[in-house]
Amino acid sequence: MNENLDAEKLREYIWFTETGTKYKKISSENKFYLGEFEGTGIYFHYEKNFSTALDMKFLATIKIRAENYLIYADECLLGEEQLKKYKIIFKKIPRDIKKI
Fold it and tell me: What's the whole-model pTM score?
């Protein structure tokens, strides 16, 4: 990914791609939480210079409950059964984004 991209612009891009609506920054203890859309909590677990993982440690940071979850990260360390149990859709971070 082009490391010159601003993290806020990435959040706006992910939000719009998933919802078709304009992103509005919200206040949350979890810096990766983008917001809720139609019952789905959306998380963009991104660190500019580090690989991120959807794992039990990350799940423990989720305090805002939703019907379902959409979580972006570099890799997923949870099995299919855990994803189903917690109603999570995992998406790999598109680190090949060059320009927004």
Answer: 0.90
